[in-house]
UniProtKB/TrEMBL annotation:
<dbReference type="InterPro" id="IPR029062">
    <property type="entry name" value="Class_I_gatase-like"/>
</dbReference>
<dbReference type="InterPro" id="IPR029010">
    <property type="entry name" value="ThuA-like"/>
</dbReference>
<feature type="domain" description="ThuA-like">
    <location>
        <begin position="28"/>
        <end position="249"/>
    </location>
</feature>
<protein>
    <recommendedName>
        <fullName>ThuA-like domain-containing protein</fullName>
    </recommendedName>
</protein>
<dbReference type="Pfam" id="PF06283">
    <property type="entry name" value="ThuA"/>
</dbReference>
Length: 251
């Protein structure tokens, strides 16, 4: 009997350890996240579960990280669950259009992320998405684990940081035929990780230090990365590696 109890306890702890290593991906566009899940498994042996938001578990406690990749509306229940998860010590990873105009109606999402999408002309600092562009992504945090661990950048990109005049050659990578977001208004402190350079249809070159960032949130931590409009974005080994690094990063 004692041996049976001991075996049950052993199985419990082994199972608990396994669940704690699982990453939950909550999405409304599944194929792109299946590509990401495959890359996370290949790069770091990370186990994932991909679900729709209406299949959200009763509790997010125990997941190694929760990745949010929702293009359309984030329902109020999942919104609160994501925020509580981060608030209580979880690692919340927010990708691409999980910050977009559709989330303006969410009461707590943008305040938690410490940002806004201004409703004015893009030339005056208003938010805008720009599709069918080539995105050049540059490393703005050369000493940070997320942007450097197991990464060798293939490109050198001429880039001028916001608020500066001097152009520098920075390491980076290129994502063709994707989508960029302009003028995320970051209202609270955070660590800037990546910048974005792209040319719009009118020929204007945009360079913004807002392509990826991370920040503490109460007991937890939030990471955001802007690329990810297409499956091909996640097939890029550098970009997949950056997200894997965010999952395994120990702050």
């Amino acid at each position: 009997m004692k041996q049976l109890i001991a075996a049950i306890i052993c199985v419990f702890w082994l199972t608990a350890g396994t669940v704690a290593q699982e990453v939950l991906i909550v999405a409304d566009e599944i194929p792109a996240m299946q590509v990401l899940a495959k890359a996370l498994k290949a790069q770091e042996g990370i186990r994932t579960r991909v679900i729709f938001q209406n299949d959200l578990p009763a509790s997010l406690t125990g997941f190694r990280a929760v990745i949010v990749y929702i293009h359309k509306d984030i329902d109020s229940g999942p919104e609160k669950a994501f925020i509580e998860y981060a608030k209580n010590g979880g690692k919340l990873i927010v990708l691409h259009h999980s910050i977009s105009s559709a989330k303006r109606k969410n009461a707590e999402w943008f305040p938690m992320l410490g940002l806004d999408l201004p409703k004015k002309d893009v030339s005056e600092g208003g938010y805008k998405y720009v599709g069918d562009i080539t995105m050049e992504v540059v490393n703005l945090a050369p000493a940070h684990f997320i942007t450097t661990h197991k990464i060798t950048y293939p490109s050198s990109i001429a880039y001028t940081r916001e608020g500066q005049r001097e152009e520098k050659e920075l390491p980076g990578f290129v994502l063709p035929k994707t989508e960029a977001f302009l003028n995320h208004d970051l209202k609270s402190p955070r660590t800037i990780l990546l910048g974005c350079k792209m040319t719009d249809a009118a020929g204007k070159v945009w360079m913004q230090d807002r392509s990826a960032w991370c920040m503490p949130f109460e007991k937890g931590w939030v990471f955001y990365s802007q690329p990810g409009h297409t499956e091909a974005d996640f097939e890029n080994p550098i970009y997949a590696r950056i997200i894997a690094n965010a999952v395994i990063y120990k702050r």
